[in-house]
């Protein structure tokens, strides 16, 4: 178990290992990435789908999904799937955030993310 007695000299090592396992799961999981970044991930087309190896993306590809958008809200993550390739839509992201009552911090974060968006795929670094 990762939670052991504080006097166990290996506890910090085990906690770090557990953290690294969780971090790898988040980094490779589209839903976790959106949730823990507080932003969104928008994948449109085969090339962008290949950037993620998580089961969610593989399942979407099997079912013919061409666009997958995961948008973090205060309530969780809204997942949208489309059979067509739809390029990133900031209006839809803002509408989703406002419908799910996101706060002003989310609006400011979105503005900063828009400036750093590359190739229609928004991948957010996790804060330490």
Helix content: 40-55%
Distance between the termini: 24 Å
Radius of gyration: 17 Å
Uncertain runs are: 115-128
What's the CATH topology label?
Beta-Lactamase
Q: What is the CATH domain class? A: Alpha Beta
* Global morphology: flat
Please describe the biggest sheet, giving its number of strands, its sense, and whether it closes into a barrel.
Answer: 3 strands, antiparallel
**Mean pLDDT, rounded to whole units?**
75
Number of strands: 3
> What is the overall number of helices?
6
Percent of residues in β-strands: 5-15%
* Number of structurally distinct domains: 1
CATH architecture field: 2-Layer Sandwich
The secondary-structure element order is: HHEHHEEHH
Please state how the strands of the largest beta sheet are arranged side by side: 1-2-3
Label the structural class: alpha+beta
Task: Summarize the SSE layout with pairings.
Layout: H1 11-28, H2 30-37, E1 40-44, H3 46-49, H4 55-62, E2 67-73, E3 76-82, H5 90-99, H6 104-116
Antiparallel strand pairs: 1-2, 2-3
Helix pairs in contact: 1-2
InterPro entries: AIB/MYC-like, MYC/MYB_N
GO molecular function: DNA-binding transcription factor activity; transcription cis-regulatory region binding
Pfam family, one: bHLH-MYC_N
Describe the structure concisely.
It is found in: Nucleus. The chain is an alpha+beta fold and 128 residues long.
